[in-house]
Amino acid sequence: MKGTPVTEEIVEYMIRMFPAEDELLAGLREQAAIAGLPPIQISPEQAAFMQTLLLGIDARRIVEVGTLGGYSAIVMARALPADGELITIERDPLRADFAREQIRRAGLDSIVRVMVGSGADVLERELAGSGPFDFAFIDADKPGYVRYLELIYPLMRRGGLIAGDNALAWGKIADADTEDPDVRGMQAFNNAMASHPGLQASLIPIGDGMCIGVVL
Ligand SMILES: C[S@@+](CC[C@H](N)C(=O)[O-])C[C@H]1O[C@@H](n2cnc3c(N)ncnc32)[C@H](O)[C@@H]1O
Fold this sequence. Notes:
The structure is a single chain. The protein is built from 8 helices and 7 strands. By secondary structure, it is α/β, with parallel strands linked by helices. The chain has one domain (about 10-215): Vaccinia Virus protein VP39 (Rossmann fold, 3-Layer(aba) Sandwich), CATH 3.40.50. The protein has a 7-stranded mixed β-sheet with strand order 3-2-1-4-5-7-6, with helices on both faces. Helix 5 links the parallel strand 2 (about 85-90) and strand 3 (about 110-115). Bound molecules: S-adenosylmethionine.
């Protein structure tokens, strides 16, 4: 094998060395578990990586598909200036309410807007022409990713970044024979990112993998 396998021990080292999860975010995870939300938010080492990217591109406006309890929204909003904006879309109204409360607790409600609805509908009907965005984070239903990419791309500024989570599809991304619709969705998304003439993309094996493309 080329490169270094990322073991649990190495992940723990990364989180210790580059911490991005404070008490508020740890508390959010605990409250989300009590509220019955699934523990499928980004990992703390992904959080640190995303904040580094956002600060590196001087991000001011972000769009996210897939809010859950607001963990990634808070992480990203913390890397925005006070007059920045983050719009996050969640299909489940109870999750959206939970996220709004957490965002309020984090003191970020003036820059984060949670929109309820299906990602494609909201992007198509309510956010068409609402760009330019500096960063887009796709982290919702996997079969929808390619459509989200199509809808988000025209909203991005040149030099902006589009990132999709779960690019390693829980370790199954290289399974060419899979019939799992979620894995197939991620394979289609990685393929769309890799072959998009307006993107320079690569796959970073952090967390469950992030496929990230810069808009050319
Ligand atoms: C992996 S979770 C998002 C995690 C979140 N980005 C974080 O890291 O904190 C995916 C979320 O997408 C939502 N979702 C699924 N399908 C959706 C759709 N079609 N439109 C909008 N949201 C959707 C789910 O309800 C779920 O809360």
